[in-house]
Amino acid sequence: MNQNNRPLVEALEYFKERTPVSFHVPGHKHGLLSSLPEGMRQALSYDYTELTGLDDLHEAEGIIQEAESLLSALYKSKRSFFLVNGSTVGNLAMIHAACGIGDTVIVQRNAHKSVFHAIEMTGARPVLLSPPWDMHTRTPGVLTQEQVEKALTAYPQAKAVILTYPTYYGVTGEELEKIIELCHACSIPVLVDEAHGAHFIVSEPFPRSAIELGADIVVHSAHKTLPAMTMGSFLHIRSELISEEKIAYYLQMLQSSSPSYLLMASLDDARAYAASYRESDKRRFMELRSSFIQELKKINHMEIVETDDPLKLLLRYAGHSGFALQAAFESEGIYAELADPYQALLILPLWNRESNPPLKEWKKKMIAAVTNLGKVDDNPAFLDMVTWPDGISVLAIPPYELVNMETEWISIDNAAGRIAAASLIPYPPGIPLMIKGERITEHHIRALSALIEAGARFQGAIHLEDKKLFVLK
Ligand SMILES: Cc1ncc(COP(=O)(O)O)c(C=O)c1O
């Protein structure tokens, strides 16, 4: 297959050239009725719908099928799907396809909230595996073979093992292939949220993709690390244990019946970008990355931490939280992906051989930013408390059983021992600190207090101003 082809992009171009008259949705009529600023309005001239020749995402047999076949050929899957509602919908669909009410699923504890939402929606019972704390990135890491083996022995009835690889911070570890083998030896499918690894397909120096390592279903946020529009994602299936039809069934149920063509075209383009990424592109990427790191190292008190994924860099500034560093960068127009108590996380562009970014100018802005921070001695004592003990745990009550139970708001100080009535999610990264149905421990409270003090933002059941949590009565 010719990976330079972009069937969807080409079809939209061709369609536009014919200056079609619109008596159909969307109501902006190719942008004519829109009063958006000109740059935005122009994009609307490609915002079509399921017109003759433009295929249908949910029954693809034309250009969308062609584009998805190119995607599948690139990732060597049995079948690949375009997703128009992010990895969120990929996670929802793959978990719905694997389990139902009362089923046990084994899930990595530091998963994205969409994984827990899917578990709640299906009525499954999660067994949570907490990975060891990764000292290098100061974040929860990835599961070990030993942990998964223990869980499989204790819960042989599990319908799926749900993993996150890499973590938001680019941690992959080296045990995923073995973990997948272990699960397959028990005929248990492995579902991998690889939201942050769509670019792994370009291979070294990037880590290997879970799809290559044998996972049954892999979900990618193409918009996170490839040049796709926000929400544009992929789902790949390569399984003998879960059928393609089931995935297609849930995707058509969970996704819009009016998917954005602009967004899908950007997925087609992102696939072509990854497919055409050559050794010369990788060399240029690594060259630019190492120059950037050298520049950053010249900034006094700045520590640069590299992780398994070369696309991610962590920046720490002595005596200041990651939140403070992020805010300082923003004052100079530099926007990091996220911050935590320790560091700011940068996602580098997947530079290619033509890239020529103004690294020195960026460094200047960063110096200006940190100059305002000043240096303090008392390095903030945000400790390993943001993690939770390693090991296996289950929820006190499965989330879907909580629907009609009575709830109340109580002071954080009195919450230990109570059951969380809603998940509490520092955002970003969107990984729940407390999961709906989980018994709240002193450990949660300490971690929460530290995060509040450090300036974290939250989604979910917290009234920050009066420090209250939402719990079962
Ligand atoms: C690990 C992980 N999984 C899934 C998601 C959801 O992805 P999306 O924003 O594409 O829906 C995110 C988003 O940040 C994530 O970090």
Please describe what this structure looks like.
The chain is α+β, with helices and mostly antiparallel strands. The protein has 3 domains: 7-275, Type I PLP-dependent aspartate aminotransferase-like (Major domain) (Aspartate Aminotransferase, domain 2, 3-Layer(aba) Sandwich); 279-373, Aspartate Aminotransferase, domain 1 (Alpha-Beta Complex), CATH 3.90.1150; 395-472, Orn/Lys/Arg decarboxylase, C-terminal domain (Ornithine Decarboxylase, Chain A, domain 4, Alpha-Beta Complex), CATH 3.90.100. Helices cover 34% and strands 16% of the residues. It has 14 helices and 19 strands. It has helices at residues 7-17, 38-44, 63-75, 86-98, 113-122, 145-154, 176-185, 222-225, 244-254, 261-275, 279-297, 322-331, 359-373, 442-454; strands at residues 79-83, 104-108, 125-130, 133-134, 139-140, 160-164, 190-193, 217-220, 233-237, 302-306, 312-317, 338-339, 344-347, 391-394, 407-411, 424-426, 458-460, 462-463, 468-472. The strands form 5 sheets. Strands 1-9-8-7-6-2-3-14 form an 8-stranded mixed beta sheet, sandwiched between helices. Helix 4 (86-98) packs across helix 9 (244-254). The radius of gyration is 23 Å and the shape is globular. The mean pLDDT is 93. The site of pyridoxal-5'-phosphate has 14 residues, from helix 4.
